[in-house]
Amino acid sequence: MVEPADLEPLFYCSTMSDALVVCDLVERLTGWLRRLMPASPRRDALVAGLTERFESVDTPVTGADCVAIERCAWTVSRHLSLIFEPGGTGLPDTVSRGWPDPDPDVVRARAACVSQVRRMADGTCLISVDDLDAVSLAQPYLDGAFALAQGSARILLDLRANGGGDPATVAHIAGWLLGDTPTQLSEVVYRDRRRQWWTPALPSGTSLRQPVAVLVGRGTFSSGEALAYHLQARGRVVVVGETTPGAADHITPIRLAPTVVAFLPEAYVVDSITGTNWEGVGVVPDVVSPPDTVIETAVAALR
């Protein structure tokens, strides 16, 4: 989290949303990018590209403008996004507040996005995880799902609808498949610190040894991509499906204006095996398959 002392003073007029124009919004956006992102040519390219494209646009901000800003940013950071809220009244942020705590009732109601655990007639266990809720709440559901895979002939981990979430949950799931001994997955580089992510230590004999295919597609995003990428890089799985969008930054929510909330990159991931990540290129499947035949293709790839 960026603390107040780390920021240059920001002053906002409470009525600025009434007259906010595109160039002002982009100036505010690029100011936050300079404050949040690690200094690098990539950050500089993102700031320069947005500034060049929008510095002379002095029309009032609309939803279409927010989409245009996103599309411009995606050439550098696929994760950057803006939400336009007509009639919004919230004051712009002057500090990075981070993510709100998850609602335990919501997580329980959706079983931590474990949408399917199915044992197929040929002994295949299909596990679908559609998002990555906070591991503190998701662990019982994930452990139950993977425990049901014990004794199966093979495992299909379906991440095609996984839009991302908690990197700690990535590490927890990876631990079920990579072994009982902790394994480093990545290092996340922030402006002022670094954080390593490791799989947890498990009781001997807990982790699963069956062949595993990870199903991916256009709906696999962010930390969903991270899980597939880290497992693929370690040679533990066969990735089957379509190339993913390629969003590898860690992001944080920032209200730029009463009418605009942004999700902005604040860190990037470095896989401990490849030394890089999937930003802009996506997770490339080992076996390409269209969605309508991906399960059959994955089973065949593991036989």
Automatic annotation (TrEMBL):
Query: Some GO term, biological process aspect, for this entry: which one?
Result: proteolysis
A Pfam entry, by short name: Peptidase_S41
- Xref: Gene3D superfamilies: 2-enoyl-CoA Hydratase, Chain A, domain 1 (3.90.226.10)
InterPro entries, per the entry? ClpP/crotonase-like_dom_sf, Tail-specific_protease
Taking every annotated instance into account, which residue ranges of this chain make up the domain Tail specific protease? 99-290
CDD domains given for it? Peptidase_S41_IRBP (cd07563)
Protein's name according to its UniProt entry: Tail specific protease domain-containing protein
**Source species of the chain:** Kribbella albertanoniae
